[in-house]
Design brief:
Alpha-Beta Plaits, 3 domains, four-stranded antiparallel sheet, 7 helices, 9 strands, Nucleotide-binding protein GCM10009807_27530, YajQ-like_sf
Amino acid sequence: MRGWGDDEPPARRETGTGPYAPGSPEPVSHDDVDAQYVKSGALTGSAAEHMLDQVEAATERLLAERLLTDRGFIANSVTRCAVEDPDSEAPASVPSRLPGMADSSFDIVSKVDHQEADNALQQARKEVEQRYDFKGTGASIEWSGEAILIKANTEERAKAVLDVFQSKLIKRGISLKSLETGDPVAGGKEYRITSTLKDGISQENAKKIGKIIRDEGPKGVKSQIQGDELRVQSKSRDDLQEVQRLLKAADLDVDLQFTNYR
């Protein structure tokens, strides 16, 4: 029996080069040349059928690779069009914005970890009870509902208890901007100081923050008040980071946190 290689063109067999050289792998290159040999009648029978199968398989593989390359180019072009220049026209036959793409955003909140606040109060209470300079002064600190109540027989000792509490808050990672403290009030033989923890952003502060973003922030950044929080949106993540740096440097009487990055 003759192998399919026995039907190869004599000229190519004699040169010992190309995909039909001795020891060469099955032909997966020179597909156009192989097809020409088949069509010219140089190859016949099973050898011709085998070669045509090789040509068709290689052609399908090249088409698939080209299709994937073209799709990647189109997707990258659409992404740049939608993100870098939303007003520009996308390439023809593709949408101007990829499905599911949305603006980046984050929320501005002001929240207090009440468990950490309670830990700070308990530590302050223990220190006040143990310190010698508070002995016999009636100094104390405790919860009174949602408020913190400080007592002492002099205004100076009451303020000293407040200082202890504030230092504990800082060590527990709670900003003093979250603590609203009233003036010492005399009542009978003692002075009282009442403090509260501020949770959420007031409407007044929310409007101030919105104005800072609008007047000083990057163009295209939008902010919206949502209850006691704000949501900031932009097509650029860099612009969102710039807004955060801007607000951290702003002179605000509220402690801000940035959460819910999307």
